[in-house]
Design goal:
Rossmann fold, 5-stranded mixed sheet
């Protein structure tokens, strides 16, 4: 007696037919990795695939989810980055069901499943399995796709190339039923902002991650590789077929190193306002750091070691007066609150920042994430100039971000960074504070 939970794997491995890109219909012969994928699907509800092109990852996901919708009920959504891809994958599901129905008539052990195969076309890219009421729907991910389909199963294909991936993904995830099953698969898109969400999701622990390069397709032999490498640059081949790219070495850095290097000692004029960012040492071996910026140009960072709170407040005050600063933003977590109080008693326009407080923009986990992404945006847009400091570079090189289970951007904790580099990222924090605007508006910059 066959266990029903094993039927999707059995049906896909033995009874699937597919249409090739040149429109021929052939028997589906799964690659070794595809067989392993079907076994993984029985263990993991959410899988993400960082993949090469032409390895059949979307095909195997469509076949698996179609079999599950047929056998267990529940709607299946196919979300693709372009119309012809969505249409092709929908045809894959449709053909699988049609050929499965024909083959089941030949097997007595599956005769009781015959009612499962009554289909009804709903629209051009939507069908209904009558026995279970399951809908299978395919859609192109245009810029304005919203919540429109309450799925149990979802394939998000080439998500790094969607027009508006972050908002579309958030809307679709919100439409899924409880315990929905999802497969995300994409090549990387490291040069464009559309690729950022995929980079974040690759580090999301809610997904089981697979990384598959071109070699998992047996047809990609030495002759195939020679032909492809002759047509593509090394970087293009790496991104298309080796699931890699420029960001692979640095992972999901808050500030990509190429952007960081571009803004070191960038030749821009000083401007207004003059603002300071003060990070107060929490422990004896940490540094207190004060960043001075004039407009978008950081003039310098002043480092204080082993300074008591009142002396530090005096030092901050002296710089505030000498630089004619408009404000000073201070990290008020822990002992930083004492410096804030001392500065206020001196009449300083001090802005208290608690990095764990709520952000202005709800897409961030807290003010720390919002603060760093404000700095990230300015660096990636080549708007700022920062000093050439090896210690600052190290801190920035080890500050990562991820998207948490609430789909909010979260910055790596200070203590985790300290474990890696042996110190707290005080210089990077001070730099981010100097540019942070708690009002939610743009930081005012005026030329002089």
């Amino acid at each position: 007696m066959i266990n029903k939970i094993d039927l999707p794997e059995l049906f896909v491995n033995n009874f699937a037919w597919i249409r090739t890109q040149d429109r021929n219909i052939i028997k589906f012969i799964p690659y070794s990795w595809q067989k392993d994928f079907l076994k993984l699907r029985k263990q993991y509800k959410r899988i993400i695939i960082n993949k090469s092109r032409d390895i059949g990852s979307s095909t195997i996901a469509v076949l698996d989810f179609t079999a599950r919708a047929l056998l267990f009920g529940g709607d299946f959504l196919i979300a693709s980055y372009k119309r012809d891809s969505a249409s092709f994958l929908f045809e894959t599901a449709q053909l699988f069901l049609q050929r499965l129905k024909e083959q089941m008539r030949e097997y007595k052990e599956f005769s009781d499943l015959s009612p499962y195969f009554e289909l009804e076309e709903d629209t051009k890219h939507s069908l209904i399995i009558k026995s279970t009421g399951s809908h299978i729907k395919a859609m192109e991910m245009t810029e304005k796709v919203g919540r429109s389909f309450r799925y149990k199963y979802a394939l998000f294909t080439e998500i790094a190339h969607w027009q508006n991936p972050r908002d579309s993904y958030k809307a679709l995830i919100g439409a899924g039923v409880a315990n929905a099953e999802e497969v995300i698969e994409s090549t990387r898109n490291v040069d464009e902002p559309e690729g950022e969400l995929f980079e974040e999701l690759l580090e999301n622990p809610d997904y089981y991650k697979l990384e598959l390069d071109y070699k998992v397709n047996p047809a990609h032999d030495a002759e195939w590789e020679k032909d492809k490498r002759g047509k593509l640059t090394p970087r293009e081949f790496a991104q298309e077929f080796e699931h890699s790219g420029e960001r692979s070495a640095s992972g999901n850095l808050v500030i990509p190193l190429d952007a960081y290097y571009r803004v070191i000692n960038r030749d821009i004029l000083e401007g207004l306002p003059v603002e300071l960012g003060g990070d107060v040492a929490r422990y004896g071996d940490d540094e207190s750091v004060l960043t001075i910026r004039k407009g978008n140009k950081v003039i310098r960072q002043i480092i204080y070691k082993h300074t008591d709170l009142m002396q530090l407040a005096d030092e901050f005050y002296a710089v505030y007066v000498n630089e004619k600063a408009e404000s000073i933003k201070v990290d008020a977590v822990g002992i930083g609150a004492g410096v804030v109080d001392a500065l206020r008693r001196k009449g300083v326009n001090v802005i208290e920042i608690n990095e764990s407080q709520s952000p202005y923009d709800s897409k961030y986990q807290n003010a720390r994430a919002e603060m760093y992404f404000n700095l990230r945006e300015k660096a990636m847009n080549d708007e700022i100039s920062i000093p050439d400091d090896s210690e600052l570079k190290t801190e920035i090189s080890y500050t990562h971000y991820k998207t948490n289970s609430q789909m909010r951007i979260q910055i790596e904790a200070k203590d985790e960074i300290k474990k890696k580099i042996g110190r707290s990222p005080d210089r990077a924090d001070s730099l981010a504070l100097a540019f942070y605007d708690r009002s939610g508006g743009e930081v005012g910059i005026y030329s002089i």
